[in-house]
Amino acid sequence: MKRRYDIDWIRVIAIVLLLIYHTAIGFQPWGGFIGFITNAEPWDTLWIPMTMLNVWRIPILFYVSGMGLYLAIQNRNLKQVFVERFLRIGLPLIFGSVAIVPFHLWLLQLYYQRDNAYLPNMGHLWFLGNILFYVTILLPIIFFFKNRSDSKIRVFCKKTLSTSYSLAIVIFLFVLETLVSKPMVFEMYAFTLHGLLLGMLAFISGFLFMLGGEPFWKMLLKWRWLFIIVAVALFSIRTVKISEPVPHYLLAIESNCWIFSMLAFAHKYLNKNSRQLKYLKDAAYPVYIIHMVFLYMGSILLFPLKIDVAIKYLLLLFFTIGGSLAFYEFFIKRINWTRPLFGLKYFEKNKIIIKKL
């Protein structure tokens, strides 16, 4: 199957947005309550663009993960896909939970002069735990239908996905999820029932979007401007009524409209390879795993400085991205035994690639 470069670009963009968002948390007064090092002077106006990102930055990663699974099963059997996904997701999750997350939590303890404690946990890698869970329970079902190309359910799905009704169904299911899980805060995805169910819906939807093939993507392109208009309108309502709680079903609709528009525009303009993409698509995953360490190191160095809060934010963002990329380039990427710990394959030239099972 032809490689979808637009999906690679969306994954890269989503990781960059995650870094921008995580850096911004350090400049919010509530950042300390969710385990971030926070600056003494908050930057309140930064919260406005953060709220726009917050309703779709994580769901789109689940969508893309589902799309990635669809591509992964095309030339592999069930055992091959499961082993490949475990090595790519499970191994970095285990390593990160016992080594990366405890280290950046130690930096937090150091900054606030708390008692040192080794705290192994998933932390920001909770996303990987969710994906591994979805893959484990869904792969047998997926391969059951894959081996029955003429099954009525598969034919029905492909036919339905070529119509705009499919998007209405997807949005309805996301609205229904909020009514079932009743989250206290829509944007609290980590370690919540809401995040687990929403992530599974997005993961399955991403998989089905790929199953829909070119007719689905043509339909998505047709309605791309409507998605933008609806998303902007709903976000504008939130900014006007910022002191009032917005119903979660509206946030679910807005979230998916942002995502549908991004998928459509990326498919139209970014479905092409480049030197930059070749580098960034490999770097994105390791950078996601390691970035919290550099975010906390930068916070320790920069937050005591008496400089403008906006400049401090930009310096911290540059330090986080630059430090993570440098660590990837000079350590993760070049040392064979570290590559699998960050979701990368062994060097081919060393002939120790994991063999197909």
TrEMBL record:
Transmembrane segments: 12-36, 56-73, 85-105, 125-145, 165-185, 191-211, 223-240, 246-266, 287-305, 311-331
Cleavable signal peptide: none
Acyltransferase domain: residues covered: 5-328
Superkingdom assignment: Bacteria
Keyword Transferase: yes
Classification via PANTHER family: BLR4337 PROTEIN, GLUCANS BIOSYNTHESIS PROTEIN C
Molecular function terms from GO: acyltransferase activity, transferring groups other than amino-acyl groups
Organism of this sequence: Emticicia aquatilis
Listed name of the protein: Acyltransferase
Keyword Iron carried by entry: no
Pfam families: Acyl_transf_3
Keywords: Acyltransferase, Membrane, Transferase, Transmembrane, Transmembrane helix
